[in-house]
Specification:
The chain contains no helices and 33 strands. The chain starts with 16 loop residues before the first strand and ends in a 6-residue tail after the last strand. Bound molecules: beta-D-fructofuranose. The site of beta-D-fructofuranose (FRU) has 12 residues, from strand 1, strand 5, strand 10 and strand 14. Belongs to the glycosyl hydrolase 32 family. GO terms for molecular function: hydrolase activity.
Length: 488
């Protein structure tokens, strides 16, 4: 196994070579499946396959053989997978099986014209082997060169399959009784949200508001590709509204833009299908990179990891709905022991954490705002550099600053400071930080403010610090938990 100093210890990575988007996230008979965009012959993007891994707990993953390889219709681009419980497709002789719905992508060698269409593959042995459907493709439309990333789900109310896919700078919705024949239902996106690049990897799902199953809203995720003019690179926006099985209606003002993550490295994320009702969670995972520099990050023999698996929920706050994210609770099993502090006054120049040296850990802190103009943590710190996670009460800005985090020189847009607004509640701010060998994920408040950033520190950057500038701040409680390695 490749084990350079940047190799994540508790995030999913391919054993070797290049990975991008998560694909075909599906839970079936006690197993979580994670497929992913994979180039088995290099550490940059290339002819796309679906790599595959299987887990019982979303944390420990067994690598499985490549599930789908390019064929006469082209490369295998992103898509989804569903459990066809009642064999609506007719692929499973009346039983249940898994159907993958993905984009076939090809380019005419002479004209250079791109063709993207949607195809199926199915598995009768819990995802171990796959057969491509002989009737592929099942959905084509030559008007759209960008026509990809189908996400399919069963719509209970209308008893049909729904597909959402990206077509240029809108999404299109289709319905089907059997996954093989698709009828156009509606289009969404013109004049709505952000349009700074091509739309990709949509998802659409229903969530209870404040956990009340009788009061629900629909959430649409739409990733936006890397437009060179756009300093943030690739990002994911979301819309909250209503969906009746045919049409999605955004309930926010059309020009209102909501980002899923204010960091730079959470793209093309989608959610698991097939999660049993008794569990009821909406579990999300994103690709922890950015098309701006994804192909030049300083790893050796492998490239890219996924974000932590996270639950998504809708919470109302002062009559406004917000999408909140939390790492899945299965991750708690990685904690070995916990260092705990209560009631520490942090002043400029003091560092109560100076005796700790850690590279993989979770940190949870409750601050009571004081006079400090800025306060926060330094992680993966040494003379060589550090990553700052800080808060400025004056502007209500939470940030990750990775300007001096380690190796930042591989791309001019990599170093920088990324911010998100978050309100303290009754004068208190809750922050949770997950640090791995090459990433920092920050969740603040109830999870309404999230920052996910790659960092490439030297192995010797193991120090930690709490800091306050121009005044003091009260740390009500702090827990630091070293995390075990899981990557096989
Ligand atoms: C998003 C994306 C998808 C496409 C895939 C190709 O990162 O561009 O739209 O299906 O990657 O690898």
């Amino acid at each position: 196994m490749i084990n350079d100093p940047y190799r994540p210890q508790f995030h999913f990575t391919p054993q070797q070579q290049w990975m991008n988007d998560p694909n075909g996230l599906v839970y079936f008979q006690g197993e979580y499946h994670l497929f992913y965009q994979y180039h088995p012959y290099g550490i940059t993007w290339g002819p796309m396959h679906w790599g595959h891994a299987i887990s019982k707990d979303l944390i420990n993953w067994d690598h499985a053989p490549i599930a789908l390889a390019p064929d006469e219709h082209g490369q295998i681009f992103s898509g989804s997978a569903v459990v066809d419980e009642k064999d609506t497709s007719g692929f499973f002789g009346g039983g249940a099986g898994i159907v993958a719905i993905f984009t076939h992508h090809s380019q005419d060698p002479e004209s250079g014209a791109v063709r993207e269409c949607q195809s199926l593959a199915y598995s009768s042995d819990s995802g171990r082997t796959w057969t491509k459907y002989s009737g592929n493709p099942v959905l084509a439309d030559s008007r759209f060169p960008d026509f990809r990333d189908p996400k399919v789900f069963w719509h209970k109310m209308t008893q049909q399959w729904v597909m959402i896919l990206a077509a240029g700078q809108t999404v299109r919705l289709y319905t089907s009784p059997n996954l093989r024949e698709w009828a156009f239902a509606s289009e969404f996106g013109e004049g709505e949200g952000a349009h700074i690049g091509v739309w990709e990897c949509p998802d659409l799902f229903e969530l209870p508001v404040d956990g009340d199953p009788a009061y629900t809203k629909w959430v649409m995720l739409v990733s936006i590709g890397n437009d060179p003019a756009y300093p943030e690179g690739s990002r994911t926006q979301y819309f909250i509204g209503q969906f009746d099985g045919t049409v999605f209606k955004n309930e926010a003002a059309p020009e209102h833009i909501q980002w899923l993550d204010a960091g730079r490295d959470n793209y093309a994320g989608v959610t698991w299908s097939g999660i049993p009702d008794e569990d009821g969670r909406r579990i999300y995972m994103g690709w922890m990179s950015n098309w701006k520099y994804a192909q030049v990050t300083p790893t050796v023999g492998w490239r890219s990891a996924m974000t932590l698996p996270r639950t998504l929920a809708l919470k109302s706050h002062n009559h406004v709905l917000r999408l909140v994210q939390q790492p899945v609770q299965e991750l708690n099993a990685l904690q070995t022991n916990t260092f705990q502090w209560d009631s520490i006054q942090v002043n400029p120049g003091t560092n109560p954490l100076s005796m700790l040296a850690l590279t993989c850990f979770k940190l949870e802190a409750v601050f009571e705002l004081g006079t400090a103009e800025e306060f926060g943590f330094k992680v993966r710190a040494s003379e060589a550099g550090e990553t700052l996670i800080g808060y400025r009460p004056g502007t209500k800005e939470l940030f990750i600053d990775r300007s001096c985090s380690g190796d930042t020189g591989f791309h001019v847009d990599f170093p920088g400071r990324h911010t998100v607004q978050v309100e303290a509640e009754d004068g208190r701010l809750y922050i949770q930080i997950w640090v791995d060998h090459s990433s920092v994920e920050v969740f603040a408040g109830e999870g309404e403010a999230v920052l996910t950033d790659l960092v490439f520190p030297q192995e010797t950057q193991q120090g930690m610090g709490i800091y306050a500038l121009e005044g003091s701040v009260q740390l009500v409680s702090l827990q630091v938990s070293p995390l075990q390695r899981v990557v096989s």
